[in-house]
Specification:
This protein folds into two domains: about 5-170, no CATH class; about 175-280, Homeodomain-like (Arc Repressor Mutant, subunit A, Orthogonal Bundle). The model is unreliable at about 1-10 (pLDDT under 50). By secondary structure, the protein is an alpha+beta fold. About 40% of the residues lie in helices and about 20% in strands. α3 (about 140-150) runs antiparallel to α4 (about 155-165). The longest helix is centred in the C-terminal third of the chain and has 18 residues, at about 220-240. It has a six-stranded antiparallel sheet. The chain has helices at about 20-25, 115-120, 140-150, 155-165, 175-190, 195-205, 205-215, 220-240, 245-250, 260-270, 275-280, and strands at about 25-30, 40-50, 60, 70-75, 85-90, 95-100, 105-110, 130. InterPro entries: AraC_XylS_family_regulators, DUF6597, Homeodomain-like_sf, HTH_AraC.
């Protein structure tokens, strides 16, 4: 297989639903550098901050990648049931990630590659769960990390603190893990991959072996991951203003008909593709 370093898409707003709205409300960055030792495991660092003082909450929604996120969060109000500031661990989200931005808040986070948290020796939280870091990654002290990150004001400096804390914990990635990352990259970028048997053939394993691999490392089935990437493609195309025919979009992305596409889209995104398209055309 080719190098795992090219396994994922360029840094974009991929997965962020209605990115134009989010950009107007919150300052989202996804461009802080990842050290070479962590590149096999951490896809990116990201940060966001907002001030909704005297304004209604803003609902931020992300059609999340099948990834664990480690975040350092501050704010004027509790978030995910946690008193802030706190170091939180976000499990793989089965549908979409939803958070209401209220008051003031700030987050600096590491987004791990799918399977990256487990490959680094981390104990994952439950699917969709957000929990205090605690002892989920041996060698990483939540209190020390929180103090060090909050001592910095600049977003890049905060990301650098996260990077410095995680880098010594990174093992040498196994060949199997590198191959998994390459496979995930193909699943994300190749729109012609629409069935699990295609992915298994690409990996050179049987479907059941592929399912076991994903269950153990990624925390989601290959079918769910493949569907998530294609739904991300659909939402991104709609947000970019390049969609006039939803039936054609459904066929291009591998759905048998528009009805099945609409059902799957609504189950994950929360609205039908036609409603999402209408909102995008109205400018949010």
């Amino acid at each position: 297989m080719a190098s795992w370093r090219n396994a994922t898409a360029p840094v974009t707003t991929r997965g962020v639903l209605r990115p134009g709205e989010t950009a107007r409300v919150a300052g989202l960055r996804r461009d802080a550098p990842v050290s070479p030792a962590l590149e096999p495991f951490v896809e990116r660092y990201w940060s966001v901050r907002w001030d909704r003082t005297g304004q209604p909450p803003f609902r931020s929604e992300v059609l999340s990648h099948p990834s664990v996120n480690l975040s350092v969060e501050t704010g004027s109000e509790p978030r995910f049931g946690a008193e802030l500031p706190a170091v939180l661990l976000h499990g793989v989200v089965p549908r979409r990630f939803v958070v209401d931005l209220t008051g003031t808040g700030r987050v600096t986070a590491a987004k791990f590659r799918p399977g990256g948290w487990v490959a680094m020796g981390g104990r994952p939280p439950g699917r969709g769960a957000v929990v205090p870091l605690g002892g989920h990654l041996p060698g990483l002290d939540a209190a020390v990390l929180l103090h060090a990150v909050l001592a910095e004001e600049d977003d890049d400096a905060r990301a650098a603190v996260l990077d410095a804390a995680l880098a010594p914990l990174a093992p040498e990635p196994t060949v199997a893990y590198r191959d998994l990352q390459q496979l995930l990259g193909r699943m994300a970028e190749d729109r012609e991959l629409v069935r699990v048997d295609q992915v298994a053939a690409l990996a050179g394993v049987g479907v059941r072996s592929l399912q076991r691999l994903f269950a153990g490392l990624v925390g989601a089935s290959p079918k769910a991951v493949l569907a998530r990437y294609r739904l991300q493609d659909a939402a991104a195309a709609i947000d970019a203003g390049t969609v006039d025919d939803l039936a054609a979009l459904a066929a291009e992305l591998g759905w048998f008909d528009q009805a099945h596409f609409s059902r799957d889209f609504r189950a994950v995104v929360g609205v039908t593709p036609s409603a999402y398209l209408a909102r995008a055309r109205a400018g949010g």
